[in-house]
Amino acid sequence: MIIPMKMTPPKSRELFPITPLVRRVQGLILQAFDVSDLQAQVYAAELVGLAEGWGGPEKAARLDWSYRIKKDLGEKLRWRSESVLAAC
Predict the structure, then answer these.
(1) Which tens digit of pLDDT belongs to each residue from 11-42?
(2) CA 69 – CA 59 distance, rounded (Å)
(3) CA geometry: angle at 13 spanning 26 and 10, to 5°?
C-alpha cells in the first residue's frame, strides 16, 4: 500500500510505502498527538522516508523515534494531553 506524502491535490502527491517501521512511527504519533490515523500515517511515512534517504533503512530503524517525532512535529500538531507535552 502506498499513501500520499502530504494532503495536497492528487497531481502533486509524493508516495511512500507503508512499512512496519512506518506503522511503528504512526503509533507513536497517535500516542503523542491529537491526529487521525490517516494524518499520523502520512506524517510517519514522510519522516521514515526522509530518515531512510539520509542513512538507509537500517539506520532509520535504530533512530529514537519518540524523540524525533516530538522534535519534528511538536510545534506543528496539537498534543494529545498536557501530560504528554510535560514528559518531553
Answers:
(1) 324 567 889 999 999 999 999 999 999 999 99
(2) 16
(3) 115
